[in-house]
Amino acid sequence: MFNKLRVDLPIPPEYKYERVNGVYLTDVWDDIRELTSGYFAGDEAIRDAKGNRVHTQQSPIALLLRIILVSTMPGDTVLDPFSGTGVTLVVAYQLGRNSIGVEIDPDYVRIIASRLNDFRHADDIMKYYNYYRHTKNLKEIWRTDKASVIVEEKQMELF
Ligand SMILES: C[S@@+](CC[C@H](N)C(=O)[O-])C[C@H]1O[C@@H](n2cnc3c(N)ncnc32)[C@H](O)[C@@H]1O
2, 20, 35, 54: most buried by Cβ count inside 10 Å? Predict the structure, then answer.
């Protein structure tokens, strides 16, 4: 399975022409930042009560979103045998994919369980939808019902 994604990369300052329908994704994904220490990690990094990162190798939501979008369809099953903080499972759920995660460290397993049960806005994949809007089969590979339900449920809790 290989879905040809189109992304709305920013136009370089010296570029002469407007881009009307994005560009095909290449095999160099330099538009996704790692969750480094410091403020770049933002809200997405899971931290303990003292503000320290709980897992220094936590992958960005944007990365797993792209991997799952490019290589699977709704209803497929994704396996992450080294789940860490469970980013693969959190993204797979929102995209309507089944997922199986394996993690050896019980502390991380607890983090995964709480991340799946207590949805965080920082994990919401919908903020990236617009970026992929020029992808031909986007509606087929990214069904938004699951993601919207999660966000709405969480918003209800907030009110
Ligand atoms: C690079 S981290 C994965 C990070 C993950 N992608 C995330 O975003 O949080 C690798 C994980 O594999 C786990 N691990 C290492 N050996 C393992 C094994 N034999 N079975 C299951 N998990 C293992 C580690 O505890 C660690 O959390």
Answer: 35
